Amino acid sequence: MINEILNSITFIYPELAVSIFLLIIVLVDLVFHKDKKYIPYISLAGLVITGILVLNQIGITHFAFVPQLSAVKKYGMMTIDPFGSYFKLLVVVTSILIIFFTIASEEVIDLKERLGEFHALIYGMILGMLVMISASDLILIYLSLELLSLSSYVLAGFLKLRERSSEASLKYVIYGSVSSGLMLFGISIIYGLTGSTNLYVINSLIQGPQINLFTLSFSSILMFVGIGYKISAAPFHFWTPDVYEGAPISITAYLSVASKAAGFALLIRFIQTGFTSFISEDGYWTLIAVFDWQALLIAISILTMTLGNFSALWQDNLKRMLAYSSIAHAGYILLGIAVLSNQGLIAVLIYFFVYMLMNIGAFYVVMLISNKTGSENIDDYDGLGAKAPFLGVALAIFLISLTGLPPTAGFIAKLYLFIALIDANMIVVAIIALLNTVVSLYYYVRVLKHMYLTKSEREQENITPSIGSLVYLLVLLIPILFFGIYFTPIVEFARSCVSLLGI
Amino acid sequence: MNTIPMEYYLLISAFMFSVGVTGVLIRRNAIVVFMCIELMLNSANLALVTFSSFLGDPAGQVFVFFVMTVAAAEAAVGLAIIIAIFRNKLTVNIDEINIFKW
Amino acid sequence: MENSQILTYLLFTPIIGAVIILFMKESQTVLIKIFGLLISLFAFAVSLYPYFNFDYTNPDFQFIHKVLWIESLDISYHVGADGISVLLILLTTFITPITLLSSWKAIDKKIKLFTMMMLLLEAGMIGVFMALDVFLFYIFWEAMLIPMYFIIGIWGGEQRIYASVKFFIYTMLGSLLMLVAIIWLTVAASKNIGLYTTNLILLYQQAPNIMLDIQKWLFLAFFFSFAIKVPLFPLHTWLPDAHVQAPTAGSVILAGVLLKMGTYGLIRFNLPLFPQSTVEFAPFISILAIIGIIYGALVAMVQTDMKKLVAYSSVSHLGFVVLGIFALTFESVQGAVIQMVNHGLSTGALFLLVGIIYERTHKREIAYYGGIAKLVPLFAIALMFASLSSIGLPGLNGFIGEFLILLGAFQSQVLDSWWYVVFAATGVIFAAVYLLWMYQRVVFGTVTNEKLNTELTDLNAREIIVLVPIFIFIVWIGIYPTTFLDLSEAPVSAILEHVKNYTFNFLY
Question: Which of A262, A477, C101, C139 has the greatest number of CB atoms lying within 10 Å of its CB?
C-alpha cells in the first residue's frame, strides 16, 4: 500500500508543486508585511515550474492511487492521461496569462495589502482544477470541485468595498452551494446503488441488469447539475452574468476560461469513464443504455447557446456582454461533447485552446480601456478605433475570432466543431448552431460599429498601451492569426491528446 | 443491530433534502438560506452513512468526514461574504440585494 | 495543365500594395492615392497576361498553382482560371482603378484606410474568381466582407451604419450556410473516396455520386448563400440599402463585381457539383428569377431616388443572369456570362454618373433636377449612353447578353415552355420605361430649380478619363462580342456537357 502511494506521488508532481507554492505564498505573505510586490513573481515562478511538470507528463497514461483490492481490473483515484494533461496545460497557461493580467489591472494593483491572499486563492483554484481534471473518483471530484468553488467565491467578491463585487460573490456562493448540494445528493445515491465511488467500478456495475434505471438517471442528472453549474450551461447559468460583471475583471476572465475548462474536462471524463461501454473504430462512443445522454446534452447545449446569444444582444456593459457570449460559447463546446465521438472531443480541445486566447484577449482590452476611462459601457467605446488604434484593432480581431470568421483561429474552432457535427449526421443541430453564430455576429459587430463607425461626442485623450500590454496582446494575437491560417500543429496536438485512459 | 430498515433512513434523508431545497427557494434571509444549504448537505451525509453501513463499505463514512469539512468551509466563506454585504448595504435580505436583476 | 504562378502574383499585387500603404503617412494623401491607383493599374496589367496567353480550346483550368496547405483535410492553396474566371478577373481589375480614380475627390477622410480597403477588397474578389479549393473559396468569400463593411460603414451616406450592419448580417447568414454546406459536401464525398478533400476538381467527379437526397439539401444550401449575394428575389432587401448608402466607389464595386460572385458561384459550384438537383430545381429558380426581373423593374419605376432606381435595376438585370444560367443551354449560359460583364460595366457607369452629379449638388432625388441638358451637355450624353446600354439597345453590350439569354431560354429543354421568355422579355420593356423616364425627367425640359445653374458644372477631365474606358468596352461588346464570348465558350460547353452526362435519364 505504501509503495503504491509513493509510486503514485511521482505522477502528481504538478499538483504537489502547486500545493508547495501555495504554502510558500502564504508564508511570504506572513513574513514580509511591508513589501508584497514580489508575490506575483513568486506565483509566476510556481506556475512555470508546474507547467514544465505538466509538459513532462504529456503522453503518459497511468492510474494513480490504486486500491489494493483492484487486482482484476485496474483503476485508481486519479487518472493521468494525455487528455487530462492537455487540460492541465491549458489551465496552467491560462493562469500564467491571468497573473500577467492582474499585474496590469488597476483594480487589483490597488489592493497591495491583500496581494498575498489574492495569489494564494488563485493557487487554491489551480489546485482544485488540476485535481478535478484527473479525478476519477466521486469523492475526489466533489472535493476538488469544492476547493475550486470556495476559492472562486472569495475571489469574485475580492473587492469587498465595491457593492457589486460582494453582491456577485453572494449570488455565486448561494447558487454554487445549492448546486454542489444537489450534486452531493446525486453522488450519495450513485454510491448507494453501486457501492463504489470509483467511476471505473461504477461503469462495470451499471452495465449489469439489476440496476434501477430510474434512480440511476435521476442521480446522473443531479450530478450533471453540479457540473452544469461550473460550465454555466443553461438552465444553471443564472449566476454567470452577475458574477462576471461584478467580479474583478481578471477573475472574470479566469472564471470564464480556466474553471470552465476544468468543468468540461470533468464532464467529459464523467461521461466517458462512467457511461461508455465501448469506442468504435471511427471514434464514436457507445454509451451504456442508462439514459440518453446525447439528447440531454444536445438539448442543453442548444438552450445554452441560444439563451446566451439572445441575452447578449441587449447588453450595454461590455463585461456583461462577454459573460453572455461566454455562456454561448459553452453551448458550442457542449455540442462538441454531445457528438459523443473522438472527433467531437478533438473539436472541444481545439475550441478550448482558441477560446482561451480570444476570450482572455477580449477581457484584457476591456480591462485596459476601463483602466483609462473607468467604464465598460459600450457608449464609451465610440470612436475608439481612432483614439487607440492598436487596442481597437486587437479588440476587433478578438471579437472577429469569437464570432468565428476566417482568417482567425476562432474560425478553425468552429470549423472542426461543424465537421464533427456533420460527420455524425447532426445536420439540423449544425444549422441551429450556425443561426446562433449569425445572432452572435450582431452583438460582436455592434462593438466594432461603436469603435469605428460612431463618432464620439466627448473629447477623450488618446489611449496608448504600455509596452508590457502591447507584448501581452501580441502574444495572444499572433497565435490567433497564425493558427487561423495554418492550423495543422494545433489540430495534430489535439489529436494526440484525445485518448482517455480506461474503457 | 439492523432493526430499523434502510428505507427509514433514506426517507428521512430525502425529507431533509426536500426541506433544504424548499427553504433555499422560498426563504429570503441569506443566513436562513445558508442553513437550508447545510440541511441539504447533511441529508446527503445521512444517506452516505446509511449506505456505508448497510453495504459494509467504509468509503461512505470517510466521505462524510470530508463533506463536513467542506460544509464548514462553505459556511465560513458564506458568512464572511454576508458580513461584507451587510457592511455595504445594512441588510441580508436577498430581495434587497438587487443591483443586478436577481 | 502547365504550372504557372501568374495568378498568385496577381492575387498578391493588391495585398502587397495595401501593406505598403499601411506604412505610409496618413498626411501624404496625394501620394497614397497615386500609389493605390498605380498598384491597381499594375494589377490590371498583370491580369492581361492570362488573357493573352489563354488557350481557347482548352476547357480545363489553366495557370494552375497548387501548394498543399492542411494535410489532414487535403486543403490546398489551389488557384487556376478558365475562360469565365479570366473574364471576371479582368472585370475586377478593370473596375478597381476606375473606382479609385472616381473617388479622388469624393472620399475626403481616412484616405489611407480607404485605399487599403479597396485594394484588399480587390484581392478578395480576384481570389474568389480563381480559387479551385472550396475551403480557399470560402476564405476569400468571407475575407471580402470586412473591407466592404467598412467601406459602407465609414464612407457611406446618412444611414450608413444601418445599411452596413444589414449587409453584414445578410451576407454572413449566406456564407455560414455555405460553410455548413462545404463541410457537409466534404464529409459526404469522403464516404465515397475514403478521405477528406476540398479539391474542387476532385469534387466535380465525386459530388454527383452523393445520395440524391443529400445532394438536394446541399444544392439548396449553396444556392441560398449565392442567391443572397446575387441577390435573387426575395432575398434582395439588403441590396437597395447597401447601394444607396455606400459611397460611389462602393456602389460601383458592389454592382460591378461583388454581385457577380453570386452568379459565378452558381456556375462554378451548383451546376457541376449537383447536376441532377440543378435540373430538378431549374424551373422554380427560373420563376424566382423572372419574378425578380419584373419586380425589380416595377419597383425601379416608382423610385424617386436615382441611386435607388439603379439599385433596383440591378435586381432586375441579375434576374436575367440567373435565368440564363438555369435555362441550361449553351446560348443562355454564354449570355449569362457576358451579361455579368455587361451589368458590371453599364450599371457601374450609371452609379458613377449618379455619383458625379451627387458630388456637385448632394441631391439624388429625381425631382430636384430637370433640364440639365443645356447646363451639362457632356454629362447628358454620357448618361444617355449608359442608360441605353443598360436598356439593351442593339449595337451596345446589353443587347447581346439579354438576346442570348432569351434565345437560350426559348430553346431550353429544361424549362420547356416559352412563357418564361414572354415574361422575362417584359423586363426589357420595363427597363426601357424606367430608365428613359428617369432620363427624361432629369435631363430634358426646362431648368426648374434655380440652384442647379450655380451648382452644376460639366464633366471634368478626370471624370471623362474614368468614363471613356467603360464606354469603349460597352461599344466593343455591342459590336464585336466574339472577343469575349470565345473566352467562355469552351468552359461553358464543358460544364453543360458535364450536367448532361449526369442527368441523361432525367430530362434530356
Answer: A262
**ipTM (interface pTM):** 0.93
User: Cβ(A408)–Cβ(A397) under 8 Å?
Assistant: yes
B91 contacts in A (CB within 8 Å)?
none
Report the C-alpha dihedral over residues C177, C180, C186, C191, rounded to 10 degrees: -120
Residue of C223, B69, C294, C488 whose CA lies nearest to A184: B69
User: In the structure grid, which three cell numbers stand for residue C92, read together?
Assistant: 475586377
Residues A352, A490: Cα–Cα separation, whole Å: 11
Mean pLDDT of chain A: 87
Find chain C residues with C-beta within 8 A of A449's C-beta: 153, 161, 164-165
Is pLDDT at A156 greater than 50 in this prediction?
Answer: yes
A4 touches B: beta carbon within 8 Å:
no
Q: What does the angle CA C323 – CA C324 – CA C330 come to, to the nearest 5 degrees?
A: 150
Alpha carbon distance A334, A420 (integer Å): 12
Does A422 contact chain C (CB < 8 Å)? yes
Region of poorest pLDDT, from A280-294, B44-58, C128-142:
A280-294
* Whether A169 contacts chain B with CB within 8 A: yes
Domain parsing of chain A, residue ranges? 292-503
In this prediction, residue A480 has a pLDDT band, given cuts at 50, 70 and 90, of very high
Question: C316-374: per-residue pLDDT in tens?
Answer: 888 889 988 888 888 888 899 998 888 888 888 888 888 888 888 888 888 788 777 77
Contact list, C150 vs chain A (CB under 8 Å): 452
Minimal CA separation from C495 to chain A, in Å: 29
Entry pTM: 0.88
**Across residues A95-122, what is the average pLDDT?**
84
Q: Report the C-alpha gap between B84 and A167 in whole angstroms.
A: 9
What's residue C357's pLDDT? Answer: 85
Domains and CATH numbers, chain B: 29-96 (1.10.287.3510)
CB-CB under 8 Å, A169 with B44: no
Average pLDDT over residues A491-495: 87
**Would you tell me how many other CB atoms lie within 10 Å of the CB of residue A8?**
18
Collect all residues of chain C within an 8 Å Cβ-Cβ radius of residue A491. Answer: 70, 72
Residues 6 or more apart in contact with residue C43 via CB below 8 angstroms: C10, C13, C14, C17, C93, C96, C122, C126
HEC readout, A89-127: HHHHHHHHHHHHHHHHCHHHHCCHHHHHHHHHHHHHHHH
The confidence band for B2, taking pLDDT boundaries of 50, 70 and 90, is: low
| DSSP β-bridge partners for residue A62 | A80
Burial class (CB in 10 A: 0-12, 13-18, 19+), C51: middle
Q: Which residue of C72, C165, C173 is in closest CB contact with A449?
A: C165
